[in-house]
Every structure is written in structure tokens, then in C-alpha cells.
Description:
The protein is α+β, with helices and mostly antiparallel strands. Helix content is 61%, strand content 8%. It has nine helices and six strands, in the order αααααααααββββββ. A hairpin with a 4-residue loop joins strand 2 (298-301) and strand 3. Helix 2 (30-104) runs antiparallel to helix 5 (134-189) and helix 2 crosses helix 6 (193-206). The chain is elongated, with a radius of gyration of 36 Å.
Amino acid sequence: MRRKATAVTLSLLLAAVTLLAAAGVSTADPVQDKKNELERIKNEVQSIDAQLESVTEQYNLTNLRVEKTRARIAQKEREIEALTAELESRKDILGQRLREIYKSGNADILEVITECKTVDDLYTNIDRAQRIGGGDVEIIASVLSSREQVEAARAELEAQRAELDAAVAQLATQKSRIESELQRRKELMSGVEAEVNQLIAQEEANRAAVVSNPRQTVSRPIPPPPPAPPYAPKVVQIAYQQLGKPYRYAGSGPDVFDCSGLVMYCYAQVGISLPHSSYMQARCGVPVSYSDLQPGDLVFFHGYGHVGMYIGGGQYIHAPHTGDVVRIADLGRRRDFCGAVRII
């Protein structure tokens, strides 16, 4: 009897455990589910923002290439115009001389001239036209040389135009990708943006200060930089004046900015010209170690795909991403800090 009772008791216990487990599986936690959903969306949005920063700066870099190529094309067109004018002038001189040669009946010279397409052709056939005077040779050579220069310049111009077409096509592709990512971000944030922002705010409020400082990814120590320039305080003051202005990709002020556009705009106000590209801005200054940062220095993140301006006290001003505004952030919280430069 005792053995039978024990078996019954075990069966009842097993049934109870099974019912409890089933109840646990079927019982949902809507608050936790919402937190999980928000966390997933927040992580995806942050991933999109990081990609957008990189693509936007690539867009800015390509835009710089387009502008420089257009400037080279304009210069080459002016050069071709001058060379063409010089060629026409020399052809007029040659035409007068040819008429004189024709009147003199020197058919051999005319035959040589008509066969010559280049300066090398002229000097190859010169032994067949020994009666051509030295002055005539120089006139003919100058015309042929000018023509070669014009043709070479036109070939270079066509190559530059092809380069421009490729860059413009790349620009369009990058712009399309940015707009596609922006739309995806907008759809993700639709309906839950307030909840996501609240969750982010809670996390930032509860996050402990990072003890360890970010380190520059350099293989050798950076020598002490020169002192901060006298215009650095003014640049920082200008950066403060942009706080609250919205982020817009490829924006360079005065009302909207992307990250490199903000830095470019602030330095332009003190007469310093910087390119509209975080990658190029990283090459414009003197490298500065984290411990030597001074207000006005440029700080970089995401492998130089994002830039901000250090303002002292472990803080920097930057234009973060779409949907945000120019604001102050703590440098110590960034795990992707990759370098800094001082604009001298």
C-alpha cells in the first residue's frame, strides 16, 4: 500500500509541475515584450544611423571629387580655347607661306607638307624637301605641334568628362541609398518613436560613466601638438550657436547640418576653409592624442566616418544623425573614438 501511495503522489507532483510549466509558457509579459520590441528597433535604428553617417560622408567625398573634376574640365576647356586660337594664328601664317610656295611652283615642297600629319612626319620627310627654308620648317612645325597639343588636350578633356560621368553616377547611387535608408528608418520609428526615445533616455540616465578612456588606434605615440590656434575659442563659440539645429545629410548650414558640414561651417566663419567630408577633414590638421585634446579640436568616430568638435570638459558638439539636432555629447561614452586633429 505504501509503495502504491508513493507512486500516486509522484504522479500528482509530475502533473502539477507540467501544469505550472504550461502556465509559464502561456503567460506572456506584455511589458517585457514591448521592451524587447523597442530594444530590437532601437538597435536596428542605431545600425541604420551608423550606416547613414558613413554613406553620407562618402557622398560628401564624392561630391568633392565632382566639384574638383568640373573645375579641371573648365580649366582644360580654357586651355583648349587658347591652344586653338594659337593654332589658327599659326595656320594663317602657314597659309600665306603656302600660297607663296605655290606661286613659285615648288610642287615637291607642297607634296611633303600634305603628307605630314605630325612633327615627326615633317622631320622624317625633310630630306625630301631640302629646298624648304629653315623659317618655313619652323612655321610648319609650329602648326603641327599646336595641332598635336589641341588633340592631346581634347583627349584629356574627354577622359575627365568620363571621370565626371562616373562620379555623378556614383553620387546618384549613394544619394538613392541614403534616401532608401532614411525611409526604412522612418518606417521603423513610426508609431514607436516616443517609446524608443524614452527607453534611450532611461538607459542614458542609468548608465554608469565609462571609467576607461577611449584610446586612439595608432601604432606609435603621437608627438605633442602645437598649441591651440587663437581662433579656437571663436570656433567653439560658433559651434554653440548651432545647437538645436536639425541634422540633414549633405547639409552645410546655416540652418541644417550633417556632421562634417557643421565643422566646415564653424571654421569657415573664422576664415578657415575645410572640405565637406569627415575623411578629408581628418587629413587637414595635426594629429592630437586623447589626453592632449583642446577646445576646437576635431574628434572622429566610426573609422573617421563621423566627426565632431571638442569643447572641453570631456564633451564635444556634433550633428548626430537624421531625426536629431546639433547637440553636446560626452566623449567618454563613445567606444568608437578613432582619432583627433587640431586645425592650425
